[in-house]
Amino acid sequence: MKFDKATTARSLKQLELSGYIMRTPDSNDRRSLLVTPTEKAVQFYPTLQHILNESNKALLSRLSSEEEEQIIALLQKISQGLNDD
C-alpha cells in the first residue's frame, strides 16, 4: 500500500502534538525517525479497540453469519491486494 508522504507527515505531526506518539532520530539511519506510542496512546488503546469493535458490530448487524464471513473474506482479499502493491 502506498501512502502520500505529505499526508503521512501531517498525520504524524498531529498525533505528536496531541501527545499520542514520539518521534526520535534513528541512531542507525540519520534520514529516519522512529515513531513510538506514548503512555497516553497505550492507555487509550483499549478504548479505541472497544469503539472499533462496537462499530464493526453495528456495521455487520444486518448480515447473516454467512454474509458476514463472505464480506470479511472479501475485505481481507482487498487488503492483501493493497499490500502487494
TrEMBL record:
Keyword Transcription regulation in annotation: yes
Chain segments annotated as coiled-coil in the UniProt record: none
Ranges for domain HTH marR-type: 1-80
SUPFAM superfamilies tied to this protein: Winged helix' DNA-binding domain (SSF46785)
Keywords: DNA-binding, Transcription, Transcription regulation
GO molecular function: DNA binding
Top-level taxon of the source organism: Bacteria
Keyword Metal-binding found: no
Stated name of the protein: DNA-binding MarR family transcriptional regulator
Lineage: Bacteria, Bacillati, Bacillota, Bacilli, Bacillales
